[in-house]
Write a structure and sequence with these properties.
The protein has about 210 residues and is α+β, with helices and mostly antiparallel strands. It has helices at about 120-125, 135-155, 155-175, 185-200; strands spanning about 15, 20-30, 35-40, 45-50, 50-55, 60-65, 70, 80-85, 90-95, 105. It is globular.
Length: about 210
């Protein structure tokens, strides 16, 4: 089986769609505006391939040209305005891609509009020949994806304990380092002893 390769000059469409990520190539004409919105849970990365556009993300604006990248994090309002005399082509990815994928507003910082579902994948649904999946199947798939993402983002109990221990050790080290003791090896022994007494940090013997 040949490796699947996409071409941004001809594949101006969604390239890959899963609950974990959606990626696509888009092309805009001079003067066109991709009106602003946010994503409740998804981070969106933009890679400009050709042309130039003014990106406004979370109240900050800047010109982005070929080979340059910018990111709209979850919850950050973003809008794209094409500048110059030539079309602008970009690659974007949104991760995770969980419906409703977009949150629309009447204006930046304004009133949230009702959610709309499936807008970013409408062309793919209209083009397919197989029967549409039932809402129950789609709901179960998205719930499973959400659960898997939540599990992946939650560290195991041992990691949580070690992380908490590390924070306590850092506080203890700062406290010991700020004391008036100016010995050579003694302060290190003092810090180790203090850490073990304070929270049982497994730092080994002094």
């Amino acid at each position: 089986m040949a490796l699947e390769v996409f071409d941004s000059r001809t594949d101006v469409r969604n390239l890959f769609i899963t609950p974990e990520i959606r990626s696509r190539v888009m092309r805009f004409q001079p003067g066109e505006v991709a009106h602003g919105h946010t994503h409740d849970v998804g981070h969106e990365m933009f890679v400009v391939l050709a042309g130039q556009a003014e990106f406004t993300i979370a109240g900050k604006s800047g010109l982005v040209g070929p080979g340059q990248i910018c990111v709209a994090r979850a919850g950050e309002w973003h809008e794209i305005r094409i500048v110059g005399a030539e079309p602008m082509t970009l690659y974007l990815s949104v991760t995770p891609h969980i419906e409703p994928t977009h949150t629309q507003w009447d204006r930046e910082g304004g009133t949230q509009l009702p959610y709309r579902y499936g807008g970013s994948t409408r062309a793919e649904r209209e083009a397919r020949s197989s029967a549409a999946e039932s809402p129950e199947v789609l709901l179960e798939r998205h719930l499973s994806a959400c659960s898997a993402l939540a599990t992946a983002a939650t560290p195991p109990p041992r990691t949580r304990r070690l992380t908490a221990c590390g924070r306590r050790y850092a506080r203890c080290t700062r406290a010991c380092s700020s004391s008036n003791w100016r010995g050579t090896s003694w302060p290190l022994q003092r810090r180790r002893t203090c850490s073990r007494k304070a929270h049982g940090s497994p730092l080994g013997k002094p």
